[in-house]
Design brief:
The chain is mainly α. Helices cover 72% and strands 6% of the residues. Strand 3 (105-106) and strand 4 (109-110) form a beta hairpin.
Length: 220
């Protein structure tokens, strides 16, 4: 416990430095992705950016819940299996497939996608905590709605940089966003059940950085 507190104190002391580095990484990323000379290389690095961001957010998590591991496993499996159903059947999200740019795949779905579901659910769940809604169902719906809003920008980013490809269309239809909302209702139910008292000083700043990053890429 003492060692854990020391690590937490160390991270908190260097929070601003870590935050600045996150900002720099995303600035470099959005520039590199949009310059023709560097775009092919930076698009391959997207998976490492997602993984690094996930690790940083995880390091700032305060262990307020003993169910944190259960939450991560449940959300990972829910998101991953939903994506697998989508890729192989066209249900839930529409007809699409993942390219090789997001790293290792199992049953045609990159493993990092499951991690992304964890991070986005966790970060948006913390935002919902700040809103201080009283009704638990409304909290789940609000969190899921935030996930859909993020996905609007995420889809533009992914299509632009060929992380995944939609068959017969340049951008997904309403079925994708409805599917995202339904799956997000499930993942945010897990958050409310097991992680509602979480504290993390890095999660919301990271979510803001991600939003600005995606918006900047969209407007470039």
């Amino acid at each position: 416990m003492k060692k854990e507190n020391n690590i937490r104190a160390f991270l908190q002391r260097h929070k601003n430095s870590v935050l600045i580095q996150l900002v720099i990484i995303h600035i470099v990323g959005v520039v590199g992705l949009n310059l023709p000379a560097t775009a092919p290389v930076f698009s391959q690095l997207s998976v490492f950016n997602l993984l690094l961001s996930a690790i940083i957010v995880a390091l700032f998590h305060h262990l307020a819940s003993r169910y944190a591991l259960l939450f991560c496993v449940a959300v990972f499996l829910t998101g991953f299996l939903a994506e697998a159903i989508g890729v192989h059947t066209g249900y839930l999200f529409g007809d699409y497939y993942y390219t090789q740019r997001l790293g290792w795949k199992v049953i045609e779905v990159p493993l990092i996608i499951g991690v992304n579901w964890i991070v986005l659910t966790y970060c948006t769940g913390l935002v919902v905590n700040r809103i201080r809604l009283r009704n638990e169902v409304l909290k789940v719906i609000t969190g899921a709605s935030m996930m859909v809003l993020l996905d609007v920008l995420l889809e533009f980013f992914a299509v632009k940089h060929q992380l995944w490809v939609w068959l017969g269309q340049d951008y997904p239809g309403w079925d994708n966003f409805i599917g995202w909302f339904v799956v997000s209702l499930i993942t945010h139910s897990f958050y409310r059940l097991w992680m509602s008292k979480s504290q993390n000083s890095m999660a919301i700043p990271y979510l803001l950085i991600l939003f600005v990053f995606l918006l900047t890429d969209f407007l470039w």
